[in-house]
Amino acid sequence: MNPIIKVIIPAYNEQDSIGYVINDIPQNVDEVIVISNNSTDNTEANAKNAGATVLTENRKGYGYACLKGMDYVSRQKKQPDIIVFLDGDYSDYPEQLTELIQPILQNNIDLVIGARVKKLREAGAMTPQQVFGNWLATFLMKLFFGAKFTDLGPFRAIKYNKLLALEMEDKTYGWTVEMQLKALKQKLTYTEIPMKYRNRIGVSKVSGTVKGTIFAGVKILGWIFKYSFK
To answer: What is the DSSP string of 126-153?
Structure first.
C-alpha cells in the first residue's frame, strides 16, 4: 500500500519561487499545503494556481506557520503516514523528496533530515553565519546528547504519528532544532540524507538580516540549553 504523504510549506512573500517549488514536488505526494505567513504579495494566488492547498497564518513566525499546517492535517479524516517540511524559496530541490522518504519506507526510520552538505551546495547558498550556526548547534547537540546530526536543514520527513508525539510548540526560528532535540529525547530513530542546495529566490527573512540571524541563534541555543538541563 502506498503511504499517504503530505508536504507542509511555510511561505512569507515567496511569489516568485512558490510555483517552482510546488511543480517540482513528486506526484506520489497526496497534498501540498502552503501556509502563507502574513504574505503581502501574490504568494497565495501563485500557490493556489500551482495546485496547493493554501492556508493563512497572520502571526509571523516559521513555527506558527508549521503549527497551522499541522492543525489543518489533524482535522482531516484520512491521516497521513509521512509529513514532509519544505521551504518555499526554492533553495532545496523538491524532487529529492523521493530520496528523503526512502529511509522511512525501507528502514522504518522515524525522522530524516535533508543535510545541506558543502560539496552539494551552490556557492553562497548558505551565509557564513548560517554555516557557523549549524556547526555550533549540531556540535552542542553532539556534546550534550551524543547526536549525529550535522545540519538543521528545514527539508525533512517524519512519520506523522511520531511528529504528533513530539508535541511541537516553538513559534519562530527554533522549530527545526526543537524537533531534533525532542526526537533525541524520545529516542526516535533518525538519519540524514545529503541534499543539493542552491541560492534561494529572493532575500532570506532570517539570514538576510542581522536581527534575524541573532534572533534565530538565540532561539536555537535556548532550546539546546533548555534540553541539556532537563
So the answer is: S-HHHHHHHHHHHHHHHHHH--------
CA 158 – CA 176 distance, rounded (Å): 12
For the segment 42-63, what is each residue's pLDDT rounded down to a tens digit? 999 999 999 999 999 999 999 9
Q: How many CA atoms lie within 13 A of 21 on its CB side?
A: 30
Which pLDDT tens digit goes with each residue over 207-224? 445 566 676 677 777 888
What is d(CA 176, CA 10) in angstroms, rounded to the nearest whole number? 13
How far is residue 19 from each of residues 32, 101, 108, 121, 126, measured CA to CA in Å?
12, 22, 32, 22, 22
Report d(CA 91, CA 6) in Å as an integer: 19
User: Is pTM beyond 0.90 here?
Assistant: yes
Reduced to 3 states (helix: H, G, I; strand: E, B; else coil), residue 111 is strand
User: Using CA atoms, how far apart are residues 112 and 173, in angstroms rounded to an integer?
Assistant: 19
